[in-house]
Amino acid sequence: MNNITLPEIAENLLLAKRVLLLSHTNPDGDTVGSTTALARALRLCGKDTLCLCDRPIPARNLFICCEGTYSTECEVLESDLVVSVDVAAPQMLGLLRDTFEQRTDIRIDHHASADNFAAYNFVDASAAACAEIIYDLICLLPCEMCEEIASPLYTALNTDTGGFRFSNTTARTHRIAAALMEGGAAAADICETLYENVTLESLQSNALFLEKYQLHLDGKVLFLPITMADKERYGFSDENVEGYATLSRKIVGVELGMVLREKDGGGYKVSMRSRKTVDSAALCALFGGGGHARAAGATIEADSFEEACKKLLDGVLANIVFED
Ligand code: AMP
Ligand code: MN
Ligand code: MN
User: Fold this and answer.
1) Tens-digit pLDDT profile for the chain (324 aa)?
2) Beta carbons of 187 and 154 less than 8 angstroms apart
3) N or C: more exposed end of the chain, with fewer CB within 10 A?
């Protein structure tokens, strides 16, 4: 799967003058933290570097970025090297797809179910987060670890492992987290920002969850359909409903939680989270999506929300396999 090594990536980065780092649409802590850290490291190495995402970084992830690191303007930088980080498939580039699908030189990723769309691909599916790979890469660059690099990487590692609780967490994850703390990561502040700051709006949205969830297959599958009207009724954005797939999987007896939402900009997006009995990536692949075994996503092609719900439920209920 890999046709480039980390030392070769480091070499290419150091040969480039201007580097553009691409994040995936609907950006999470890993894609934002990993690109921010790499951008800061590259700037310390004298490179003109910019991160790009198809839409503005959501408010809850803004604390990870540093001023001036991110842009949403496609043409802002005439770069000679384009590197994507945590982008599993070209559709994950979102609005940047048309411009960059054919122009991505190097793709750094940790999704096994991936589409190797870049000219050179480095994929380590054993990495809990791209942050682990980016940490190794930064160690190959001629710059010192510092708080400005360590904090975004620690945030990326922490969020993609659900606070070091998900099954992707390994001894290596903890070793890198420890090295990042030694390198200046503000771990306690980051954890407080991530986990000890519940908004009243998100608490109120639990009423929406309780009102709308459906159970299937003797309660093993929890399905939560969220329409634009639901979000408007509660004054929510996509961000407020995103956590529900993870919440669903926590419920005793639920093996697969899936949230289908009508997106703010149009389209139907499913997020799946599962326990170890269910392969979420395989189920999302039925709809052209992918991800990890325990956390995956897809966009459902349909003309209406009702049709998207039916397509999703029919596909999942007919194909789901529960392993012991
Ligand atoms: P989400 O539910 O969108 O947070 O996605 C869960 C995981 O699946 C993340 O690691 C995503 O990067 C991945 N993922 C989401 N959508 C897709 C897709 N269309 N193709 C491949 N991977 C995806
Ligand atoms: Mn991601
Ligand atoms: Mn990731």
Assistant:
1) 689 999 999 999 999 999 999 999 999 999 999 999 999 999 999 999 999 999 999 888 999 998 788 887 765 568 899 999 999 999 999 999 999 999 999 999 999 866 899 999 999 999 999 999 999 999 999 999 999 999 999 999 999 999 999 999 999 999 999 999 999 999 999 999 999 998 887 788 889 999 999 999 999 999 999 999 999 988 887 877 878 999 999 999 999 999 999 988 789 999 999 999 999 999 999 999 999 999 999 999 999 999 999 999 999 999 999 998
2) yes
3) C
Question: Ligand 3 center to residue 86 CA distance, Å?
Answer: 5
For residues 27 and 193, give the distance between their C-alpha atoms in angstroms, rounded to a whole number. 17
Ligand 3 centroid to residue 229 C-alpha, Å:
30
Tell how strand 70-71 and strand 221-226 pair up.
Answer: unpaired
Nearest alpha carbon, ligand 1 atom 2: 271
Instruction: Provide the number of structural domains found in the chain.
Output: 2
Instruction: Please say whether the beta carbons of 9 and 106 come within 8 A.
Output: yes
Domain membership flag for residue 324:
no
Q: Which of 195, 214, 249 is the last residue of a domain?
A: 195
Residues with CB under 6 A from ligand 1: 26, 88-89, 91-92, 111, 271, 289-292, 295-299
Distance from the alpha carbon of residue 248 to the mean position of ligand 1, in angstroms: 17
Mutate to test the pocket of ligand 1, among 26, 85, 111 (most ligand atoms within 8 A of CB): 111
Which of residues 195, 222, 252 is at a domain's end? Answer: 195
Closest of 145, 138, 177, 158 to residue 63, by C-alpha: 158
CATH of the domain at 123: 3.90.1640.10
Report the CATH number that the domain containing residue 289 is assigned in CATH: 3.10.310.30
